[in-house]
Automatic annotation (TrEMBL):
GO cellular component: a single term: endoplasmic reticulum
Record CDD domains: SIRT7
Family: Belongs to the sirtuin family. Class IV subfamily.
InterPro entries listed in its UniProt record: DHS-like_NAD/FAD-binding_dom, NAD-dep_sirtuin_deacylases, Sirtuin, Ssirtuin_cat_dom
Native source species: Danio rerio (Zebrafish)
Gene (name only): sirt6
Protein name: NAD-dependent protein deacylase sirtuin-6
Active-site residues, Swiss-Prot/TrEMBL: H133 (proton acceptor)
């Protein structure tokens, strides 16, 4: 679970701003705001959701910077103890609501900073999902790029070898790839996966509505992606109990538990929240190309398919100068620094955690 995940990361001094106070809208105010959000979703042609650790706290998986988050407790000199494991955690109401919204066409693309695997285990199609910081249940062939989704956590982190090998057959079935499988989980200074980040960037630019759920948006570049939607004329909605780095840029700011917000929202949209029937893997949404992110048709984006060896390189650890999480509070938003020049982005994406 997230405590073990956090403990498995390399030592790192700057974990962002932790333990900020929470704010709650009154029931009447919350109702009015969710009604506005529902209307915007009805009008939207391309909504993108950005999810953070706050959507999983109701499953028993703690967040990191909340009042009782893993890193908040560490700052207080306390040792966090929780009983939930990643394998035992069940998708929350929010996870299942997002799945239903994708099925009904309301949600076009989902961008997550979470590593708990709950989006994938809920059955959310992987061709409509970017997991920017990895997935505890996924390992990847460093040779051909094939990804494997496991029933249990992979067990290692930081793009390290798992001890298993790829079984993808080469052309004419002569022999299997046999490339080493590595963890998909990033450590502090690992670069974000180009494939997921590029698709997230493209979807964010295309979106006319960006909805952020349960993230403080402190971390670059993940936390700045919603601003791309606003920059291209779309609306930005932020749902989080604690202050976020981009509150002043939001068209609508909602202070409430994400499950409460999503529960009200689904009723207003006339949608049922499906029951979770156990871990489900969906690689392909079966949707039309017109709901893929811009440019997705140009590249191999279905994760189950093999990527040509000559064109694929798994991101290695790169030492970068860390961009302090407090910059957004002190100096304003500078999304341009990461997103200004297309084609150079893959060399400036350094990973840190929500």
């Amino acid at each position: 679970m997230s405590v073990n995940y956090a403990a498995g990361l390399s030592p790192y001094a700057d974990k962002g701003i932790c333990g900020l106070p929470e704010t709650f809208d009154s029931p009447e105010e919350l109702k009015t705001k969710v009604e506005t959000l529902a209307q915007w979703i009805r009008e939207s042609q391309y909504m993108v959701v950005h999810s953070g650790a706050g959507i999983s706290t109701s499953t028993g998986i703690p967040d990191f910077r909340g009042p009782n988050g893993v890193w908040t407790m560490e700052e207080r000199g306390e040792t966090p103890h929780f009983n939930t494991t990643f394998e035992d955690a069940r998708p929350s109401l929010t996870h299942m609501a997002l799945l239903q919204m994708q099925r009904t066409g309301h949600l076009k693309y989902l961008i997550s900073q979470n590593v708990d695997g709950l989006h994938v285990r809920s059955g959310f199609p992987r061709d409509r999902l970017s997991e920017l910081h990895g997935n505890m249940f996924v390992e990847e062939c460093e040779k051909c790029g094939k990804q494997y989704v496991r029933d249990t956590v992979v067990g290692v982190m930081g793009l390290k070898p798992t001890g298993r090998y790829c079984d993808v057959m080469r052309s004419r079935g002569l022999r299997s790839c046999r490339g080493k499988l590595i963890s998909s989980i990033l450590d502090w200074e690992d670069s974000l996966p180009d494939r997921d980040l590029n698709r997230a960037d493209e979807a964010s630019r295309r979106a006319d509505l960006a909805l952020t759920l349960g993230t403080s948006l402190q971390i670059k570049p993940s936390g700045d992606l919603p601003l791309l939607t606003k920059r291209t004329g779309g609306k930005l909605v932020i749902v989080n109990l604690q202050p976020t780095k981009h509150d002043k840029h939001a068209h609508l700011r909602i202070y409430g538990y994400v499950d409460d917000v999503m529960g009200q929202l689904m009723k207003l949209l006339g949608l049922d929240v499906p029951e979770w029937a156990g871990p489900t893997l969906c690689e392909d949404s079966g949707g039309d190309l017109d709901i893929l992110p811009y440019g997705a048709w140009k590249k191999e984006v279905k994760i189950e398919l093999k990527i040509e060896e000559s064109n694929h390189t798994v991101s290695k650890k790169r030492k970068r100068k860390e961009q302090h999480a407090e910059e957004g509070y002190k100096n304003g938003v500078k999304v341009e620094e990461e997103m200004k020049e297309e084609g150079k982005e893959s060399d400036s994406h350094v990973h840190t955690h929500t």
